[in-house]
Write a structure and sequence with these properties.
Structural class: mainly alpha
Oligomer: single chain
Distance between the termini: 27 Å
Largest sheet: none
Helix content: over 70%
Strand content: under 5%
Radius of gyration: 20 Å
Number of strands: 0
């Protein structure tokens, strides 16, 4: 039985690829969350500007962006863990 055939062991090339994939995801996820909050806030700001209202739409848009960002993070993490 070779080292690659043993359960729980991976060849070094596969470990490096897995590590690179995990590192890429760890670098990407914070940007996904921040971008969704900023996008929601900007849409709300534009709506406030267009309707000449106080920044309530911006706060609601930022909150919805936050919820969407968390949902996207959970979706990506569950897909990578499967």
């Amino acid at each position: 039985m070779t080292q690659a055939d043993k359960p729980g062991t991976e060849p070094p090339a596969n470990k490096l690829a897995t590590l690179a994939r995990q590192l890429a995801m760890a670098m990407e996820l914070p940007f996904v969350l921040v971008a969704s909050v900023v996008a929601g806030g900007l849409l709300g700001y534009g709506l406030d500007y267009w309707l000449h209202t106080q920044p309530i739409c911006m706060l609601i848009g930022g909150g919805l962006g936050f919820v969407a960002g968390i949902r996207e993070l959970l979706r990506r993490l569950s897909k990578s863990g499967a």
